[in-house]
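Check these lines:
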Amino acid sequence: MKGFALIPHKDTLHTLCTEQMRIIKEFNQSHEKELWLLPLYPLWAITEKNLFSVNITKVSILPPQETEESVYFPFVCGCKNEEDFVLKVPFAKKNKEKEYKVLQKEMSLTLIPKSIKAACISQEKNCWTALEEKWLKFSK
């Protein structure tokens, strides 16, 4: 698979990973054995959209949300002369045997990174590689 990704700076990745592990641990410890969450990696916003052709001026990482299959961090990308768009960073996979809600309370996590890496990526088996990379730096 080939595509594009927004890759957070290592400090932002650390914050996302800490939140990911906290949510998964709390959920798995407080539920029956038949309900569980598995972590997903990498914590990148992957898309087919060519991120090098879009003028991204800011990124906001919002509190986690969920679908029937996963829990994810929404990345809201603000663009100059284009409509904003949202990318999902799935961080936990639900088992599909039952339908259940993971996020029971509102979370206040909102991050506004000063920089983020746009990259052309490839994936083979379980190995992700960022090929062509460009740091996007944002002013306040």
